[in-house]
Design a protein that fits this description.
Four copies of one chain form a homotetramer.
Chain A (H helix, E strand, L loop, with lengths): L4 E6 L10 H15 L3 E6 L19 H9 L3 E9 L2 E2 L1 H11 L17 E8 L4 H14 L9 E5 L8 H4 L4 H23 L11
Helix pairs in contact in A: 1-6
Amino acid sequence: MPKLKAVFLNTSLKTTDETSHTEALMEEVQAIYKEKDVESEIIRIADYKIKLGVQEDMGNGDEWPEIYDKVMSSDIVIIGTPLWLGEKSSLATQVVERLYGSSSKTNDKGQAVFYNKVGGVVVTGNEDGAKHASASILYALSHIGFVIPPNVDAYWVGEAGPGPSYIEGGKENDFTKGHVRMLAYNTIHLATMLKNTPIPAEGNTLD
Amino acid sequence: MPKLKAVFLNTSLKTTDETSHTEALMEEVQAIYKEKDVESEIIRIADYKIKLGVQEDMGNGDEWPEIYDKVMSSDIVIIGTPLWLGEKSSLATQVVERLYGSSSKTNDKGQAVFYNKVGGVVVTGNEDGAKHASASILYALSHIGFVIPPNVDAYWVGEAGPGPSYIEGGKENDFTKGHVRMLAYNTIHLATMLKNTPIPAEGNTLD
Amino acid sequence: MPKLKAVFLNTSLKTTDETSHTEALMEEVQAIYKEKDVESEIIRIADYKIKLGVQEDMGNGDEWPEIYDKVMSSDIVIIGTPLWLGEKSSLATQVVERLYGSSSKTNDKGQAVFYNKVGGVVVTGNEDGAKHASASILYALSHIGFVIPPNVDAYWVGEAGPGPSYIEGGKENDFTKGHVRMLAYNTIHLATMLKNTPIPAEGNTLD
Amino acid sequence: MPKLKAVFLNTSLKTTDETSHTEALMEEVQAIYKEKDVESEIIRIADYKIKLGVQEDMGNGDEWPEIYDKVMSSDIVIIGTPLWLGEKSSLATQVVERLYGSSSKTNDKGQAVFYNKVGGVVVTGNEDGAKHASASILYALSHIGFVIPPNVDAYWVGEAGPGPSYIEGGKENDFTKGHVRMLAYNTIHLATMLKNTPIPAEGNTLD
């Protein structure tokens, strides 16, 4: 069987010259992918010029198509987001808008193009909001064609109020470590199943 | 001016014979109300037989009307909830359903009956979900006629994963204490303003 | 292969002596299950005495264990809910709380007991809230061990404001029909895959 | 008393050269403001270069400070958003992030700078999501210092599935018209109250 491929879309508001706690948590997942021979890449969305809109290519130097191509060539797509006021980032919202923009495209069997891919989320914040952000992102992925395996929401948030972020405060959290492990393994397990047995094109084509 | 009155609706899943962390946090708010001469009462919703439905009185021994009367005689209504999977409790959802069941009733000026009351929330959980639960409850209150003052979401949640609840883990949290204070004072400030100057019946009657 | 089994948990606030729009939409899904030889049952949660709490059996005549047994003997679990103020019903919230109460139980391989089951949602309301309710329920199912196939949120809501409910207003809606079809087929497809190839117990056990 | 001022922040993904349904609904609110002698301005956020981040001024040509100044000189702030997958737009999320970036600034009494301002929302979509988007935005505003009057969520969404947008489908909707009226009048009523009687600086300062 060909190697599995995963792409991480990090929607931190910071470009790669700055440390991202969300990326640090993604790297924990990535370490397991490496061990299990899954090829993976982390993309910092803030490094790209993503135009506003819900078309596949908004033109005018829009760099979303590059990211879309990476999504399309991956079996596993993990969206990572920081939290502000208990919500996913504006870039996470934009990534969902842009993915949605391709949701009526079909594969050669007539299913949505995202069929047979699996999705997951990684969330970090200094406090509160991880489950709400996860629910929103996983729902969006599921609604446009992704399979959501069990326990694919790996997150860390601290106690209510200001405080340390993941790198300082969360690296030793056992709950988070357990969820990193489940996210990594369950995305691999389901992606492998779907590679071996794609979802039949019955009852789910868009025509 | 007549004394202000506040009612706390504690939607813990436990009856009063069991300790409620949400109630412990409510008591912090209540202590300030006492100091400021606001009369208040904490009601444990689980002690009552609340029938399912969205009528004012579902009959058949429905005890909601007793609670509704306490809401109607109060200037300030605080809903408190624990969290499960990042969401407010089923009883909190039911309290919102039952309040909603009276949302088309009007006062003598033709406004919704909840006009000139102020709302707030108190949330506790061992981890994550307070802001999402607060947003849901405050929105519901605002949509049926309550005024939402600034900073009326007092909450405590711990770090991601299993861990202590509010009484063991949160009593000394300064962020939570600050929010208790803002919740208590801002509900008093706005309730006082609305008592002195009720919202004019212009553009907001239900006929 | 043994027949697949599905259970629908209808969290309408009404007991079976009253018409449920959510149930009418569930019956559309059920018709496809019948055609495809999937055994199914619709349960009206309001007919049962479900105690408040998050233990598997709250005692005192708690009838949740009967429902839990039906969930455990099913391959597919569909939660259906009406909407009030844009949110799932109090009973839907309670079903999630009770399922959560068993989330640390394990199967003989050490995975959560809900592994290898697939989940979906059916939502009806006279207006607005279906996606939010779907996100909340699907997230909860995924977080406790269910697989979420693509497009398993079948819903109908009408235009903003008061108006007809599903039976009068939604039966001919093509979007809803398409989603009924995708929900039914994709739950069958994924449940079949998981029956043939259960998720390996690697990286996802709870010990 | 000096005239009241309102600012509408339209977070449509389109710049002013394109028709915005959200703006059309904002204009209904604006017509009432005009009648009642409230000065108002609609800002299309997509026309500005807003940098990612949560500082007041992200530098590098960041045009948020211009918008922040308009917010600060207004008594009423209305955020308007379209819907994608049942969620507010990425620009709405960004506006919230940027407002949040000033939430620890204080006025001369030591309260958050947004105290004594009132907030509201306007939402349009071809289907589903208005209440969830409203809850999210109103909560954020309330959490950073705004007062939320009753019934300040004016929205229109159509029936489930693809269909007309507000301008074609919603202009005659009586529910939406009623909510436009309540949003306009209640923001005026509360802003007037707060102008006459600002929230006392007791229990709510940030020091």
